[in-house]
Amino acid sequence: MPLHCGRFELSLERPLVMGVVNTTPDSFSDGGRFLDPAAAIAHGLRLVAEGADILDIGGESTRPGSAEVPVAEEIARIVPVLEGLAGVGRPLSVDTRKPEVMRAALGAGADMINDINGLQAPGAVQAVAGSRAGLCVMHMQGQPLDMQQAPFYREVVAEIRQFLDNRVASLVAAGVARERIVLDPGIGFGKTVEHNIELLRRLPELAVDGLPVLVGVSRKSLVGVLTGAPVGERLAGSLAAALAAVWRGAAIVRVHDVKATCDALAVWRALSKE
Ligand code: HH2
User: Fold this and answer.
1) What is the atom index within ligand 1 of the atom nearest the CA of 217?
2) pLDDT for 225-253, tens place per residue?
């Protein structure tokens, strides 16, 4: 079943690469590099040339400990980037948890809304339901400000599956076609290293109704803990994590290093064909 994503229908027959465009001063791995819209647009063009299937534009860092950005500021960061990349020929996703930003993004041509808060904010479902946009529903325990202080689950996989199940039911009840929905366990969002590993190992169990699963582990502290590498030196670990996620069934990987990820996936796919 292809993914319906605004102006696009994406085949999921091969794993897709979502390239990250953070137009923020403070994202954990590339904060400040693409805050200027021209720099963000140039970065998006480069990621498409490197093979990105989707671009994910974010105007608010949600790294552990981060505080919220005011709505007007987040809109001012993302809309010029959406406009500048409108003709790039790839779906443009906007990474936001605020209904007002979702509406502005959709008005400016976004093809997908990627919400780390699983479209739970009051008004979020209503903001997106009537559009044609793809929707990425992510699980997070707590809020970015405090989510890593004491993550706790009785059974992490079962609880997150239940959450995703409930969110799919709410979206379908609001009239959203299943073909528009992508699920994400939210690696690093209110989870210990052990929780993250368990989720990645048991990824197939999270595919509620066979819906596609997106995984974002690029440069994250899970990779840092497993390798001992600082944030600027996590490429090799991130590639291994992306391949492992795809091996466990991820339909989309969200990454900063698009060229390296596409190369790794090309080799992996060729060698893993029966
Ligand atoms: N991770 C980040 C941001 N958005 N969205 C989804 N669906 N899944 C993820 O795992 C995910 C996400 C964090 O990465 P980044 O955007 O690079 O960092 P920051 O939040 O500091 O901007």
Assistant:
1) 10
2) 999 999 999 999 999 999 999 999 999 99
- Domains in the chain, CATH or no CATH each: 15-269 (3.20.20.20)
Q: Which two tokens stand for residue 124?
A: 């979020």
Query: Is the separation of the CB atoms in 113 and 180 below 8 Å?
Result: no
pLDDT tens digits, one per residue of 178-208: 999 999 999 999 999 999 999 999 999 999 9
The verdict on the CB of residue 114 being under 6 Å from ligand 1 is yes
Report the distance separating Cα 7 and Cα 252, nearest Å: 18
Q: How far is the CA of 29 from the centre of ligand 1 (A)?
A: 10
Report if pTM > 0.90.
yes
